[in-house]
Amino acid sequence: MRILLVGAGGVGSAFCAIAARRDFFETIVVTDYSLERAEAAAAQDERYAAARVDASSADAVAALCREHRITHVMNAVDPVFDMPVFEGAFAAGADYLDMAMSLSKPHPERPHEVPGVKLGDEQFAVAEQWEAAGRLALVGIGVEPGLSDVFARYAADHLFSEIDELGTRDGANLVVRDDDGNEVFAPSFSMWTTIEECLNPPVVWEDGAWHTTAPFSEPEVFDFPEGIGPVECVNVEHEEVLLMPRWIDCRRATFKYGLGEEMITILKVLHQLGLDSTEKVSVKGVQVSPRDVVAAVLPDPATIGPRMTGKTCAGLWVTGTGKDAEGRPTGPRSTYLYHVVDNEQTMREYGHQCVVWQTAINPVVALELLATGAWQGSGVLGPEAFDAVPFLDLLTSYGSPWGVRELAP
Amino acid sequence: MRILLVGAGGVGSAFCAIAARRDFFETIVVTDYSLERAEAAAAQDERYAAARVDASSADAVAALCREHRITHVMNAVDPVFDMPVFEGAFAAGADYLDMAMSLSKPHPERPHEVPGVKLGDEQFAVAEQWEAAGRLALVGIGVEPGLSDVFARYAADHLFSEIDELGTRDGANLVVRDDDGNEVFAPSFSMWTTIEECLNPPVVWEDGAWHTTAPFSEPEVFDFPEGIGPVECVNVEHEEVLLMPRWIDCRRATFKYGLGEEMITILKVLHQLGLDSTEKVSVKGVQVSPRDVVAAVLPDPATIGPRMTGKTCAGLWVTGTGKDAEGRPTGPRSTYLYHVVDNEQTMREYGHQCVVWQTAINPVVALELLATGAWQGSGVLGPEAFDAVPFLDLLTSYGSPWGVRELAP
């Protein structure tokens, strides 16, 4: 297996650190728009090489694939570049993996009722071509989407005879402090992307169809495990809702993000003032996008790891009818399958903060399953199209176990 | 009386419109950094002339005074230019009026406990020179400060034998709508200045000394008259607190601004994210001040008048011991002296929105009292240094009456 990693930012660098401990591949060619950043990430393993890439060009991606005889393209850049990387991999005959699907566009007239272009629509539109060519695009194989989708498959195969709701729930108790020990506001993930996903109309799968709602809809307090505790969660547009119902029978699929009251207030204010806008405005003679200004005044998420404490939890809350070991329906069941990562542990062991580390470990596991043949397939497939057990076992053997919490049904 | 108006923005333009109906002066030379703006404001009366001014230069202000044989300089520019305009007037032997005093600087170590440089300190520092020269600087003669200070003098002279608190309380129920009739967030006053005054440490006079607090301290809901109703008010740094105790005996002086919960949340978020900062940051190759970006994405307050409805109220809540007509102490008393302006009325009658109109009418009244000799003085004086009765009578005769509401003591 010869991997082209596109993007050496936070997640890409953590991917390199995790993969460096595994022997299932021959090489990883680490690429980025900044050659310096690619070289920094590639420096930690002699099997790695570095190159510059223009991720907006499918031709540039394809040329790199051919030059380095790439078998798998691992896409770790901003989702705005999803399609050129996806198309470049296909053109060069490589398999493809990403952690976020092609972007959505809201419905022009009824954005808070019906979807326009949905997340991944552009990729699924060419699924037959990928299948006919015998090539695999494994889309959405980070932590969310990714591990959450693996949990969905596991729940359908082993825990539930009938599923009412597949509810991804993400929450954390991360705190960042300044040099004086005071808490500061410092998102652990790109603020630009957080604004994008939280202010887009959230999508919900219900009774056989997708619909959208207004941002921050259906707030609920979810009690996260391992000491994180209750966090206010709201509907957010996310890939799981588009992926899970394609392979798993369920009445409802939702994604709720534990933004917490503070972040919800901040996002609402930014939107109210128009500071979420990406269109440039004129400010005393210069042109800037307000959203870029917001991102610029906040600390770089890649730099906050050493000043951060706490845990992050990704998981799937499944409700429906349980089943026993023989597959016979039991009674009503409500189960939360989850994966918790402690920032101090990932900083100590890998030098990467927990949110990017938790995203990056899952595609490494998936690539290893593809390398060993434990996972096989062609077409454009989500993680739930594959057997969950070998994935969860391998994740555990990486030293990062998952958990199950039974809730009152 | 020959007036030099420095600044033809919202308040300056409204000043021109109000003064145009009065005959106590010979000329007003309307000046601005933009000659075009000065000319537009000067066009409405044949006694007016227009000129360009650099308000940051005391020499430029003095030269204009001499050229036009100015007797009174009316300062209506951003308070950042207070000192050069004040000094330019003195150099040219003119009297001076402003609506906001020289700026404060927080205490470097204990900003939320003790004042650093206070509002007006730079002006009061040279009070003896003004007095020796027989010249008058009447500082803080807008609505707040201004009319609120006149109310303080009236309360001390006519309503109270002993004053516990002089509490300026400002509130409004103004709403701005877009073309579709939906409410939009559009501050009726400069957002840059709102951030400045609301995020500076508020100052309070108590038991013979000034102290400061953290921003947004001591929230209270005050019930404003004439249909405005209850609004959440918080401590804000304002001139009244520095002016009133210099002339009027009181145990406590406060200023609380009815920002409302929405504006308080917005200001807190802007501060939390660092978007209130005036220091330039680098954003994709250009340098901008985040606060300038916030101001740039919001509607220009000068343009929202036609889309705004509602009333604004400026007033002074006085508590203490009342007195009867003979000056004998009665019992505990709690009185709100106020001035309410309806936006639809000022738009219809003057073409200016109510907040700038209410600020601008008070210096016109004051200048008329100085022209007739009803008010006389020299030195650096606040409005409370003069008899309140002729001011309130003349304000009423302008068609803009004031009110009194007795509250439960």
Automatic annotation (TrEMBL), chains A, B:
Q: Where is the Saccharopine dehydrogenase-like C-terminal domain?
A: 142-399
Which InterPro entries does its entry note?
NAD(P)-bd_dom_sf, Sacchrp_dh-like_C, Sacchrp_dh_NADP-bd
SUPFAM superfamilies from the UniProt entry: NAD(P)-binding Rossmann-fold domains
The Saccharopine dehydrogenase NADP binding domain covers 3-137
Q: What is this protein called?
A: Saccharopine dehydrogenase-like NADP-dependent oxidoreductase
